[in-house]
Design a protein that fits this description.
The model has no long low-confidence stretch (mean pLDDT about 95). This protein has a single domain (about 1-270), classed as 3-Layer(aba) Sandwich (Rossmann fold). It has helices at about 50-75, 90-95, 110-120, 150-160, 180-185, 200-210, 225-235, 240-260, and strands at about 1-5, 10-15, 25, 80-85, 100-105, 125, 135-140, 160-175, 195-200, 215-220, 265-270. It is globular, with a radius of gyration of 18 Å. Strands 6-5-4-7-8-11-10 form a 7-stranded mixed beta sheet, sandwiched between helices. A 4-stranded antiparallel beta sheet has the order 1-2-3-9, with helices on one face. The longest helix has 22 residues, at about 50-75. It is of the alpha/beta class. The chain is about 35% helix and about 25% strand. It contains 8 helices and 11 strands. α7 packs across α8.
């Protein structure tokens, strides 16, 4: 499938299935991919513009932050060591830093600076090697894993940093959801070329099943993502009444997912063996 970078460059990219069934990769991956993030509207880094899109994002984010923390508390104790990998401007780190011994990793200097201004206890790092091996109880990646090209290498690093039975929690968009199928090339969560990889539910299960050090424990939905993604998709289509259409199609997507389990975004709770 050919997808346009609707967000920034308007360039065309192709999404091709990899050797792992259900896992797809953006082609080509630009050698200067950092320039595709260079926008004041890129919400992971710049969250103080007051734009309509940002306000909706913040509203949904408040619910998602509590939901994400609950997933951690269901499986690890308060005071456990947690790394939020690719923490962006530090919203999740700030939300959990009073419940856990928290670290954030963020390679982008601007985002890292924004995170450091928000937090009071957690350490924001630019080098994961500063974290001791076998010291972490959980590593979270909230819509980050799809941005990583060297995924095999990073899975090995995560395995090294986690304690035995430690958790790797990965949230990614789902290109086999109803809203993805409805919007097709306008589906905002393709977000090429910033999203290098794209995972169907089966694709992520296939990927993890190939890794001897990991075991899939649970798959949970991010229910609110369908509304935000549908809103952006409608805007890319230049739709009138995009708010109303986003609510309609986001709701239809979630209703379909109640039967298919193919939610717009999925959280994979993976345990280190």
């Amino acid at each position: 499938m050919k997808i346009k970078d609707h967000f920034l460059s308007q360039e065309i990219f192709e999404i091709k299935e990899t050797e792992t069934q259900g896992v797809f990769k953006t082609s080509p991956v630009p050698s200067n991919i950092s320039r595709y993030y260079e926008s004041e509207d890129y919400i992971s880094h710049h969250q103080d513009s007051g734009s309509l899109k940002e306000k909706l994002y913040k509203f949904l984010q408040s619910f998602n932050l509590q939901y994400k923390k609950t997933i951690l508390l269901d499986r690890i104790k308060k005071g456990a060591k947690v790394l939020d990998y690719g923490c962006g401007a530090g919203e999740f780190v700030r939300y959990i830093e009073n419940d856990f011994e928290t670290f954030g990793f963020e390679p982008d200097a601007d985002a890292r600076k924004a995170a450091q201004h928000k937090i009071s206890k957690a350490a924001i790092l630019n080098d994961i090697n500063l974290i001791q091996d076998k010291s972490l109880d959980a590593i979270t990646l909230w819509h980050v894993f799809e941005h990583i090209e060297n995924q095999d290498e990073m899975l090995e690093i995560f395995n090294r940093k986690l304690k035995d039975k430690g958790l790797l929690i990965i949230a990614v968009p789902n290109p086999t959801s109803y809203d993805a199928k409805h919007y097709r090339e306008y589906w905002a969560a393709y977000d090429v070329p910033r999203h290098i990889y794209h995972f169907s539910k089966k694709g992520m299960e296939n990927l993890i099943s190939k890794k001897p050090n990991w075991k899939m424990r649970k798959i949970k939905p991010l229910v609110l993502d369908s509304y935000y993604i549908s809103m952006l998709s409608e805007k890319y289509k230049k739709s009138s009444l995009f708010w109303i259409k986003a609510v309609v199609y986001g709701t239809i997507s979630n209703i379909n997912a109640l039967f298919s389990n193919e939610f717009s975004s999925l959280i994979y709770v993976i345990e280190k063996k």
